[in-house]
Amino acid sequence: MSDDLEDLYRETIMDHARTPHHFGLRDGAAAESHQLNPTCGDEVTVRVHLNDAGDRIEALSWEGHGCAISQASASLLSDLVDELEPADLRSRVDEFREMMRSRGTIEGDEERLGDAVVLQGASRYIARVKCAMLSWVAVEDALAKLPQAA
Predict the structure, then answer these.
(1) Average pLDDT, the chain
(2) What domain range includes position 84?
(3) What's the CATH code of the domain at 123?
(4) pLDDT at 147
(5) Mean pLDDT, to the nearest integer, of 16-35?
(6) 85 neighbors 58 (Cβ within 8 angstroms)
(7) Domain NIF system FeS cluster assembly NifU N-terminal spans what residues (predicted)?
């Protein structure tokens, strides 16, 4: 990875950590999950909001605290979910997990993962993988709690 690209990734992560998108829990969620990384103390609560028909994700709201990677990851994830079907989001969580477990050998698909691909550099550091995965695990758990129609 070039130094310029690495700097861009670092800048994107820091921007999302300083000014997170969709931060703040909204009422009216279809499902919620709270996750804690006991290794470092990062924690996050996510709420999945469905559209009126209940077949697409309208939004993801979240709150949490922790390192820049965990906060940026939640912010980047929250940008990705708009109007996805729950099954598609589950698939993207799996793709993100595969990228994060690759130790840098698998590049994320920007079309599927959006700007969250900037976190692929963290996959080279085991301690950082848990930080990056925290909100994605929370969303996965929340999706499992959705009513069966979703």
Answers:
(1) 90
(2) 3-144
(3) 3.90.1010.10
(4) 83
(5) 96
(6) no
(7) 9-131
